[in-house]
Amino acid sequence: MINFSHLAEKYQTPLYVYDFDAIAQQYETLKEAFRARKAIMAFAIKSNSNLSVVQHLAKLGAGADCVSIGEVRRALLAGVPKYKIIFSGVGKQDHEIKEALESDILFINLESEAEFERVEMIAKELGLQARISIRVNPNIDPKTHPYISTGLHGNKFGVEINAAKRMYLKAKKSEHLDPVGIHFHIGSQLTELEPIREATEIVADLVRTLQAVDINLKFFDVGGGLGVTYENEVTIDPKEYAQAILATMRGLDMTIICEPGRFITANAGYFLTRVMYEKQNDEKRFVIVDGAMNDLIRPSLYSAYHKIEAVDNESEKSPADIVGPVCESGDFFAKERLMPRLKHNDLIVVYSAGAYGFGMGSNYNTRGRAAEVALEEGKDRVIRRRESFDDLVALEKEFLL
Ligand code: LLP
Q1: Is 327 considered catalytic here?
Q2: CA pair distance 99, 66, nearest whole angstrom
Q3: In a domain, 144, yes or no
Q4: Model pTM?
Q5: In terms of Cα–Cα distance, which of 251, 157, 267 is closest to 207?
Q6: In this structure, what are the phi and psi dihedrals at residue 141, rounded to the nearest 5 degrees?
Q7: Is the pLDDT reported for residue 150 higher than 70?
Q8: Which atom, in ligand 1's list, is nearest to the CA of 223?
Q9: Is residue 247 located within the same domain as residue 147?
């Protein structure tokens, strides 16, 4: 049991807490599921990019899936070996491509024919050969929230199969490109195995077609997306997930890359916030807390459910909206949630906050971002200090007239 009261007392609120032992356990579970093959678990840095979290995973052997050169730098800074870093994203800037090539990471994932040309040109300018992979859009409906589904032709991600074929053929002929991998990612918070199996089959077939023309790829990147339980979702068993992928890849001698984000950190993270006031407007009950949408935007943005509990409070429950102090009606953590009677300073825990929590935070309403704390083997330590007002104005102050 985590002593939330102690942590809130010691570090103040709002506060993010990450259980590093739970993170390690999730990592090992997935790694173990792919034991039968050479595999790299490339942690999706975007899901939780705190340097200490990334370092913790790097020490366990994880790689990194990055979507900006900033994330690549974070991964390197945290000790992820360059040969386990991959760089994806639909819009990489020239300077990002250049730096990624100079950093000699495992490969760059190409997401369009236009980007293909740019990477080839930049590699030529640098006088090197760029290791590349192509993100294929298999046109599969992952059956998740539309904002986080990515593998349909209506989404901006990847290229369709025929374009991918053309690109591989061109890459093979290019002096400056070395096609080493293939990639797909159909969406996030996936709870059904079938779409993943279908996508894997489509991509594995493409790999076989390419082999027939002597294009032999080494890395089969299955993306991320494994769902977790926020409320009562039945999730995919990691072993079944790995088995489904391995079965479709029969006969292909390739290293698997997996890009888990949420699966590793979501349920290892907690967001602590204190009650400021209770307020009743007619029939409507509001609990106003010191955390807000700038700290954790998932409920506002996706109507996402997060389990919420009041610490050490057994009083009778009634429905309430749990809201933050930001000047937006969309600033809420939950609506009509059964909550006990609360008073000033009572502590509230928002669960499953370890993925896409802090990282999607902002300084809206000039609110400093929360501190982040790690819990490891019974000990707690700060891994990011709370932002101060000075931090918030640091980049503007010098321009005052
Ligand atoms: N690989 C690629 C290419 C991705 O686009 C993503 C997530 C991942 C891996 C990691 O997916 P995961 O294993 O974490 O599901 N902000 C949203 C989620 C956005 C996901 C974007 N891509 C949320 O809070 O639900």
Answers
A1: yes
A2: 13
A3: yes
A4: 0.97
A5: 251
A6: -80, 115
A7: no
A8: 1
A9: yes
